[in-house]
Amino acid sequence: MDSTRFDPTRLLANGTAGQLSSTHVAPQPAQAGDTVDPLYRAKATEAAVKFESFFIGHMLHQMRAGTRALAAEDSPGKSRINDDMLDMADNLVADQMAGKRAFGVADAILRQLLPPAQPPAPAMAAGNVSESQKINTPLNQQQ
User: Fold this and answer.
1) Structure confidence at residue 19 (pLDDT)
2) pTM, full prediction
3) DSSP alpha helices (H): ranges in 76-123?
4) For the segment 17-39, what is each residue's pLDDT rounded down to a tens digit?
Protein backbone atom coordinates (compact mmCIF):
# COMPACT_ATOMS: atom_id res chain seq x y z
CA MET A 1 0.00 0.00 0.00
CA ASP A 2 1.27 3.47 -0.89
CA SER A 3 1.98 5.38 2.35
CA THR A 4 1.34 8.77 0.71
CA ARG A 5 -2.27 7.91 -0.13
CA PHE A 6 -4.89 8.99 2.43
CA ASP A 7 -6.50 6.00 4.06
CA PRO A 8 -9.26 6.85 6.57
CA THR A 9 -9.64 3.23 7.67
CA ARG A 10 -6.03 3.28 8.89
CA LEU A 11 -6.79 6.40 10.94
CA LEU A 12 -9.96 4.87 12.36
CA ALA A 13 -8.20 1.59 13.17
CA ASN A 14 -5.48 3.42 15.08
CA GLY A 15 -8.02 5.45 17.06
CA THR A 16 -6.96 8.80 15.62
CA ALA A 17 -10.43 10.04 14.70
CA GLY A 18 -11.77 12.42 17.34
CA GLN A 19 -8.50 12.48 19.25
CA LEU A 20 -5.38 14.55 19.14
CA SER A 21 -3.06 13.54 16.39
CA SER A 22 0.52 12.60 17.06
CA THR A 23 1.48 16.29 17.14
CA HIS A 24 4.25 16.60 19.68
CA VAL A 25 3.97 19.45 22.15
CA ALA A 26 7.47 20.73 22.75
CA PRO A 27 8.01 21.69 26.39
CA GLN A 28 9.14 25.21 27.04
CA PRO A 29 12.75 25.32 28.24
CA ALA A 30 13.31 26.51 31.77
CA GLN A 31 14.75 29.97 32.06
CA ALA A 32 17.08 31.35 34.69
CA GLY A 33 15.24 31.88 37.96
CA ASP A 34 12.38 29.57 36.94
CA THR A 35 10.87 27.92 40.01
CA VAL A 36 8.12 25.93 38.25
CA ASP A 37 8.30 22.15 38.42
CA PRO A 38 9.16 20.87 34.90
CA LEU A 39 6.52 18.11 35.17
CA TYR A 40 3.83 20.69 36.02
CA ARG A 41 5.02 22.91 33.17
CA ALA A 42 4.81 20.00 30.71
CA LYS A 43 1.32 18.96 31.86
CA ALA A 44 0.06 22.54 31.81
CA THR A 45 1.47 23.06 28.32
CA GLU A 46 -0.11 19.86 27.03
CA ALA A 47 -3.49 20.72 28.57
CA ALA A 48 -3.38 24.25 27.16
CA VAL A 49 -2.54 23.00 23.66
CA LYS A 50 -5.32 20.37 23.86
CA PHE A 51 -7.79 23.07 24.88
CA GLU A 52 -6.67 25.27 21.99
CA SER A 53 -7.16 22.29 19.67
CA PHE A 54 -10.67 21.72 21.05
CA PHE A 55 -11.47 25.42 20.68
CA ILE A 56 -10.29 25.56 17.06
CA GLY A 57 -12.06 22.29 16.19
CA HIS A 58 -15.31 23.52 17.70
CA MET A 59 -14.99 26.81 15.86
CA LEU A 60 -14.44 25.01 12.54
CA HIS A 61 -17.42 22.75 13.23
CA GLN A 62 -19.67 25.75 13.97
CA MET A 63 -18.45 27.55 10.85
CA ARG A 64 -19.29 24.50 8.74
CA ALA A 65 -22.74 24.23 10.38
CA GLY A 66 -23.40 27.91 9.69
CA THR A 67 -22.38 27.52 6.08
CA ARG A 68 -24.68 24.51 5.75
CA ALA A 69 -27.60 26.43 7.31
CA LEU A 70 -27.17 29.33 4.90
CA ALA A 71 -26.76 27.14 1.80
CA ALA A 72 -29.56 26.82 -0.73
CA GLU A 73 -31.63 23.63 -0.70
CA ASP A 74 -30.07 22.31 -3.91
CA SER A 75 -26.52 23.31 -2.95
CA PRO A 76 -23.79 20.67 -2.49
CA GLY A 77 -22.94 22.42 0.78
CA LYS A 78 -26.30 21.31 2.20
CA SER A 79 -25.41 17.62 1.86
CA ARG A 80 -24.47 15.79 5.05
CA ILE A 81 -22.92 12.83 3.23
CA ASN A 82 -19.31 13.41 4.27
CA ASP A 83 -19.91 15.00 7.68
CA ASP A 84 -17.94 12.37 9.60
CA MET A 85 -14.92 12.74 7.35
CA LEU A 86 -15.12 16.54 7.41
CA ASP A 87 -15.30 16.49 11.21
CA MET A 88 -12.23 14.26 11.35
CA ALA A 89 -10.41 16.57 8.92
CA ASP A 90 -11.40 19.60 11.02
CA ASN A 91 -10.03 17.91 14.15
CA LEU A 92 -6.74 17.08 12.46
CA VAL A 93 -6.40 20.64 11.14
CA ALA A 94 -7.21 21.96 14.62
CA ASP A 95 -4.53 19.71 16.13
CA GLN A 96 -1.90 20.96 13.72
CA MET A 97 -2.85 24.61 14.26
CA ALA A 98 -2.87 24.20 18.04
CA GLY A 99 0.53 22.50 17.90
CA LYS A 100 1.88 25.64 16.24
CA ARG A 101 -0.02 27.84 18.73
CA ALA A 102 -1.63 29.64 15.80
CA PHE A 103 -4.40 31.35 17.78
CA GLY A 104 -2.49 32.05 21.00
CA VAL A 105 -5.13 30.49 23.25
CA ALA A 106 -2.63 28.07 24.80
CA ASP A 107 -0.19 30.91 25.45
CA ALA A 108 -2.90 32.95 27.19
CA ILE A 109 -3.80 29.97 29.39
CA LEU A 110 -0.16 29.34 30.25
CA ARG A 111 0.30 33.00 31.23
CA GLN A 112 -2.43 32.44 33.81
CA LEU A 113 -1.26 29.04 35.03
CA LEU A 114 2.47 29.63 35.23
CA PRO A 115 4.10 32.41 37.23
CA PRO A 116 5.86 35.08 35.19
CA ALA A 117 9.55 34.62 34.66
CA GLN A 118 11.78 36.76 36.83
CA PRO A 119 12.75 39.86 34.87
CA PRO A 120 16.46 40.25 34.23
CA ALA A 121 18.34 42.71 36.38
CA PRO A 122 18.13 46.23 34.92
CA ALA A 123 21.25 47.36 33.13
CA MET A 124 21.00 50.81 34.65
CA ALA A 125 21.19 51.11 38.41
CA ALA A 126 18.55 53.22 40.15
CA GLY A 127 21.19 55.69 41.29
CA ASN A 128 22.09 56.51 37.69
CA VAL A 129 18.62 57.86 36.82
CA SER A 130 18.51 61.62 36.41
CA GLU A 131 16.00 63.69 38.38
CA SER A 132 14.01 64.49 35.23
CA GLN A 133 13.41 60.75 34.61
CA LYS A 134 12.03 60.02 38.08
CA ILE A 135 8.28 59.88 38.53
CA ASN A 136 7.20 61.33 41.85
CA THR A 137 3.42 61.00 41.51
CA PRO A 138 1.40 57.89 40.72
CA LEU A 139 0.10 57.79 37.17
CA ASN A 140 -3.36 56.35 37.94
CA GLN A 141 -4.71 58.53 40.72
CA GLN A 142 -8.35 58.42 41.71
CA GLN A 143 -9.95 61.86 41.41
Assistant:
1) 52
2) 0.60
3) 83-99, 105-113
4) 445 455 556 656 666 566 778 88
Can you give the length of the chain in residues?
143
Question: What does the alpha-carbon distance between residue 35 and residue 131 come to, in Å, rounded to a whole number?
Answer: 36
Burial (CB count <10 Å: 0-12, 13-18, 19+), residue 140: exposed
Residue 115 and residue 34: Cα distance in Å, rounded?
Answer: 9
102 Cβ contact partners less than 8 Å away, ≥ 6 residues apart: 56
Q: For the chain, how long is the longest CA-to-CA vector?
A: 76
Q: Among 98, 82, 117, 9, which residue's Cα sits nearest to residue 46? A: 98
Question: How many Cβ atoms from other residues are within 10 Å of residue 6's Cβ?
Answer: 9
Q: Is 56 left (phi over 0), alpha (psi -120 to 50) or beta?
A: alpha
